[in-house]
Amino acid sequence: MVKQTDTPAGQSELAPLGQYYEWMPWNPVEKVIMERRSTRRYKKEPLPDGMIRRILEAARFAPSTGNQQPWKFIVIKSPEIIAEMEKDALWFTRLLVSLYGYTSFKGLRRWLTKILAKSTVMRFMSNMFHPVPYFVYTVAAQDKTTYFHNAPVMILLLEDQRGVSTPSVDIGVAGEHMVLAAHSMGAAACWVGFIKLITYFPKWKKKFGIKYPYKLRESIVFGWPSPKADGIVPREVQTVQWFDGGMDDLPRLERQGE
Predict the structure, then answer these.
(1) What residues are paired with 157 via a beta bridge?
(2) Which alpha helices (DSSP H) does the chain contain, by range?
(3) CB of 56 within 8 A of CB of 155?
């Protein structure tokens, strides 16, 4: 079983690609996967266009159901455009908090808003109003954080809704190819699902030419990290079932990460 502590983050030796032997150190691909961290602070210096093209090429070679490649990518390098998107996302966030931010209200308004929120948006948009993003909404509404982290590059991931099976899964795989490719070249990245906030503004769909069959699904920001934060960090231990016996045998349980 591979443990989190089996291979130190600062190891000088890497195993060759295409081989496996017990207790071997990470190979270069594993090293990038294990040490990658989401980055939320970037230098102003832009990434070279050549690097961005290689990041996009990594996504183009991602696997997809039936090899349908249900995606389209849009690169945004304009500081003016990204700032305007940030401005609109903040405006919409403040609207949400003013309508449904019952945690900041008192008395009768808090009670009424809580009922309204739980019976409407929180019921039908539970992912969007999960405690984690909801906390970011409240902090952003107070100008204490940014959504796009002042990154110099943003890539929009559009989903072709005609895709086979579950296109959103294919989009996730393609995006992860981008993230790993970026980190392998010394850049950094962060998924920003809050991009969905700007879909409520028709001007952005018009600006980027987003129309059926495409839908804005996700965004990833890229840049040079400030400071560099990659490194292996503890992860939650997972219990994994192994079915390696017969039909009447119970699964073997293994705690991954210990």
Answers:
(1) 73, 218
(2) 28-35, 49-60, 79-100, 107-119, 121-124, 131-140, 167-184, 202-208
(3) yes
In a domain, 219, yes or no: yes
The conformation of residue 245, written as its DSSP 8-state character, comes to S
Conformational region of residue 153, where left means phi above 0, alpha means psi within -120 to 50, and beta covers everything else: beta
Q: What is the mean pLDDT of the chain?
A: 87
Report the C-alpha gap between 148 and 222 in whole angstroms. 10
Number of domains forming the structure of the chain: 1
Whether 213 and 161 have beta carbons less than 8 Å apart is answered as yes
Q: For residue 114, is pLDDT > 90?
A: no
Q: Beta-carbon neighbour count of residue 123 at 10 Å? A: 10
Q: Could you give the count of Cα atoms lying within 13 Å of 45 in the half-sphere of its Cβ?
A: 7
Residue 40 forms part of a structural domain: no
Q: Which of 222, 251, 180, 197 is CA-nearest to residue 52?
A: 222
pTM, full prediction: 0.85
- The parent domain of residue 126 ranges over 49-223
- Alpha-carbon gap, residue 185 to 231, rounded angstroms: 15
The enclosing domain of 127 has a CATH number of 3.40.109.10
